[in-house]
Amino acid sequence: MARTKIFALKRPYPRQSWNKQAVYNLFRYRAPQATRGTFYQQKFRAKQETRRFHGEYLTERKWNSMFRHTLRGVVRMNPAQMAKGDGSDVVSGRGSGVDLLPRRLQGLEGYEGLDSTEKRNPPIPFVQMTFAPLERRLDTAVYRALFASSVRQARMMCLHGKVMVNGVKMPHAGYMLNPGDMFSIDPLTVMRAIGGRERAPFKQLSTQAKSDLQKAIEEAQSKTKSSTYLKASNKKVLAGNADAEVDTETFTAAGVKSTSSETTEGEASGENATAAAAEGEGSTAGGKKKFHLPSDWRTYLPKHPRWKIYDEWKPKRFMNLFAFVPRYLEVNHHICHAVYLRHPVARSGGAEVPNPFGNDIMQLAYNWYLRRR
Amino acid sequence: MVVRLRLARFGARNRPLYNIVVSQARTARNSKPMEIIGTYDPIPKPAPDGEGKPFKDIQLDITRAKYWLGVGAQPSDPVWRLLAMFGLIEPQWKVVRIPAQQEDKALYEKVQKVKLIADGASKTTSTTSTTTTS
Amino acid sequence: MPPRLRPSSLPSTSNVIPQSFSSSPLLPFLLPSYHIYTQIPTPFSSRNFSTSKPAYRRIRFEKTPGTRNGFVNWMRKFAPRFNVPSPVDNIPVYLTQEPVNLPLLKGDSLPSVKKREAGVSRKQAKRNRVNWELAKEKATRSPFPGNPSFKVHPVISTEFREQIYLRMKADRSVRRISAELNCELERVAAVIRLKEIENKWIEQKRPLCTEMQKRVHAMMPVTEYTPFPLHESITDLRIHSATNNQLFLAVPESMPFTRQDAGEALGLLPADVRMPHSELIQVEKMKLAGVEVEEMVRIETEREAREAEEAKAKKERREKRLGAAKVVETERFRFRLKPANAAAVGFRYGVPAEDRKRGVNKIPTRVV
């Protein structure tokens, strides 16, 4: 990666990130005037601007090898119309189909039904597809599926081996997805990546809560039945249950929940600062009483922060500005899996590649990469 | 000199892949063989559905293998094992191992019988048990 | 070399411009450039060295948008408007929510600002001219202010997915579900695939991110399930590269030139065949011919059964051709036995292995 300072405020450049500086820069970004300078200068400038957004961490050489001058597009077919005729009406007349309505007659009385074809089918924005090959990259797809808050973060996830493709670890961020490939990430990683700041895990317990907890743990360990829930191997099952039925029961039986609700509140928020920190075993708190809590006592609490995120997840700041999934992906956030359905295409309504640049800039950038400059 | 059906090692360190080859017995392992008739990947792949035993892949040209066996080529022990899976030759050894559960069951029955003797159960059972033990 | 002119030695703008202009944002353009640079320095900065403020003071008090101060200002004033983690009524909020040029109403009914009615403020009159429906539509569909041509397409809701899965469970083909619910074929298949994994997770008591799913969907446009949902076009025909070039073809004027002919001329199958859901054309033809509904259903069911059989036969033939792998199970492993051709099988001799060579792409191209 060539550059690390990518959110500089001096000159705004749009970047693929939900970072606050990136949002500010995207907000005040104005594309350069396309008509200034020679044609070469225009193309170069357009290429510079667009490449700062699309795969800015790739070298120009790498991107050049990925670029394809063929751009994918689709046309929407109408079966009802195709059933009516065999298509010969399109080429009837003088060879260019039935005459279009002249522009001067459009919208006049008596001509309402006859609209120009151009208006019914706006042109396909092919140039918006210039950077479509990048969308095949695994890191970009992870970002597009809303599993990461920036492409660089998505790339990091790949390199750290968090991303699986078809159930196999894929440590290459540059893996080109094929239609039908399924990629997935561990939900906890995703929730941290696109989630807001988590509440700090509590460090303090009141004296009352501590003695109750100790009692509960001892009781649970002595009892054969409930100890099955609290065995170290089963702890994950206990805390991981979304509805947390198992542990609530255990604790009600053991007596933690039977103390007043305010104690529980005090535990969670850490506001009840009457006692000193309960650090593992043998710390003196609230006076003379000694507690022998196991070192992993936090995981015995019904709402351990590690699992709390499943129920109390909050989106990262500014996530709503980027909350959209392109049509070529099908994402299931329940399990943090997504499927790459097909390659992105352009259609009459618009292209599928998310892109903040207008058609004029994209046209120039596309021309630059055609290598006839 | 004998013509053998044997494996030639390819792949990389800790990542073997074998060609099943037909070659003269005295030539080097990876020298150019008379013919390649298949491959064998000894590294188990996890089952695609995530359940059950892992897979190992074997590819073999069965007609060529039959031909070479017909003209008297001698398979090496590992290749013998692979060819036996295709049903081209009889397996060299038949290893019959009692699966763990069945072993347990046998043991359980044995213990039961011993117990019956110790308890001094009815005559019929004791006679049957004595016949089995003797 | 003449002494370099420092910005601080330039005249104060208030000396040059009439006071009334000073607040205009176009100030630099109103001034001809020679005017600035030919001015003699004003007496208060007649020194040769810089009299500008020291760096620490300059940074602290400068309030231009390009610096940290501008950013902090923006974060304080504007950012709360854009950071909407749970939008009202699930209407997404994107950066375009307050576009600079609001779309105006069209037609004669456009109320003018000058000839406004008494009691209507100027601001209100301006607001009345705006086409708010269109503005809202634009704001909730395009996330990039600079590119209105990029439109967000809604995703399908959780309930919608559930419906697709239920239909699959009721033994309906992917093709039929796709046509019924107006979802692309690939999407239907993917939804079913993902749903299967989800069910497996529930079985294994693995926690699902229900909260995240809910909140993420609240931030983006979502297609809710209705009996006849209109999610997306299912008959998108891929533009073949052969159709990009012009083709000159002599055609008799008296003969009709159909899609079939066009396909033949280009060396392609006609669009009627290449299109996904080409069977819909037959359905529409039956509708035009006035075929009874029961009859249509019967024909369609027959066609489905026939297609399923054909697909099965094709799969069998393919397996037979490739030689379906026979599996031998041993104590620890399963051996997949595949027939092969001696001419094509195995690693070749005399070919260097390039797996460690520099510059050779080692990223796998496919994961099966």
From TrEMBL, chain A:
<dbReference type="GO" id="GO:0019843">
    <property type="term" value="F:rRNA binding"/>
</dbReference>
<dbReference type="GO" id="GO:0042274">
    <property type="term" value="P:ribosomal small subunit biogenesis"/>
</dbReference>
<keyword id="KW-0694">RNA-binding</keyword>
<feature type="compositionally biased region" description="Low complexity">
    <location>
        <begin position="258"/>
        <end position="282"/>
    </location>
</feature>
<dbReference type="InterPro" id="IPR002942">
    <property type="entry name" value="S4_RNA-bd"/>
</dbReference>
<feature type="domain" description="RNA-binding S4">
    <location>
        <begin position="136"/>
        <end position="199"/>
    </location>
</feature>
<keyword id="KW-0689">Ribosomal protein</keyword>
<dbReference type="GO" id="GO:0005763">
    <property type="term" value="C:mitochondrial small ribosomal subunit"/>
</dbReference>
<comment type="similarity">
    <text>Belongs to the universal ribosomal protein uS4 family.</text>
</comment>
<keyword id="KW-0687">Ribonucleoprotein</keyword>
<keyword id="KW-0699">rRNA-binding</keyword>
<feature type="region of interest" description="Disordered">
    <location>
        <begin position="253"/>
        <end position="290"/>
    </location>
</feature>
<dbReference type="InterPro" id="IPR036986">
    <property type="entry name" value="S4_RNA-bd_sf"/>
</dbReference>
<dbReference type="InterPro" id="IPR022801">
    <property type="entry name" value="Ribosomal_uS4"/>
</dbReference>
<protein>
    <submittedName>
        <fullName>Mitochondrial 37S ribosomal protein nam9</fullName>
    </submittedName>
</protein>
Automatic annotation (TrEMBL), chain B:
<protein>
    <submittedName>
        <fullName>37S ribosomal protein S16, mitochondrial</fullName>
    </submittedName>
</protein>
<keyword id="KW-0689">Ribosomal protein</keyword>
<dbReference type="GO" id="GO:0005763">
    <property type="term" value="C:mitochondrial small ribosomal subunit"/>
</dbReference>
<dbReference type="GO" id="GO:0032543">
    <property type="term" value="P:mitochondrial translation"/>
</dbReference>
<dbReference type="GO" id="GO:0003735">
    <property type="term" value="F:structural constituent of ribosome"/>
</dbReference>
<dbReference type="Pfam" id="PF00886">
    <property type="entry name" value="Ribosomal_S16"/>
</dbReference>
<comment type="similarity">
    <text>Belongs to the bacterial ribosomal protein bS16 family.</text>
</comment>
<keyword id="KW-0687">Ribonucleoprotein</keyword>
<dbReference type="InterPro" id="IPR000307">
    <property type="entry name" value="Ribosomal_bS16"/>
</dbReference>
<dbReference type="InterPro" id="IPR020592">
    <property type="entry name" value="Ribosomal_bS16_CS"/>
</dbReference>
<dbReference type="InterPro" id="IPR023803">
    <property type="entry name" value="Ribosomal_bS16_dom_sf"/>
</dbReference>
TrEMBL record, chain C:
<feature type="coiled-coil region">
    <location>
        <begin position="291"/>
        <end position="325"/>
    </location>
</feature>
<protein>
    <submittedName>
        <fullName>Uncharacterized protein</fullName>
    </submittedName>
</protein>
<dbReference type="InterPro" id="IPR021036">
    <property type="entry name" value="Ribosomal_mS45"/>
</dbReference>
<dbReference type="GO" id="GO:0005763">
    <property type="term" value="C:mitochondrial small ribosomal subunit"/>
</dbReference>
<keyword id="KW-0175">Coiled coil</keyword>
<dbReference type="Pfam" id="PF12298">
    <property type="entry name" value="Bot1p"/>
</dbReference>
<dbReference type="GO" id="GO:0032543">
    <property type="term" value="P:mitochondrial translation"/>
</dbReference>
<dbReference type="GO" id="GO:0003735">
    <property type="term" value="F:structural constituent of ribosome"/>
</dbReference>
